[in-house]
Structure prediction request, 109 residues.
Amino acid sequence: MIISALAQRRGHRMTEVKRLMEMVVDVVSNDYESYDNVLKEVAVWANEENIEWTDQLIGDALRQAIEQGLVQAFSYSEQRKIFVVVGAGALELPHLYFLATAQGRKLLV
Prediction:
């Protein structure tokens, strides 16, 4: 499982990494969110639970959530005034917006 690989790579317990993934998906479960907002909201929620995660770890979890199909990445087209799906090869996270997929929202139930 990808979550366990992230836990092993970063030296975190599996339960902590699972909670991180849940928080990442939860932040983007209702509306498009910018990368900066994902970092900020997850850090606030983690702080409330006395957990400290780096921006790098949160970004890695977001990337994993995208790879697992829990979150979809989008760019915003100013010209067309719409969000456009971004393919996996073009994931420059700081410049994108994110929204949970149906599969991701099931994780939160």
About this structure: The first strand starts at residue 33 and ends at 34. Confidence is low (pLDDT under 50) at residues 1-5. The chain has one domain: 2-107. The domain at 2-107 is CATH 1.10.10.10 (Arc Repressor Mutant, subunit A).
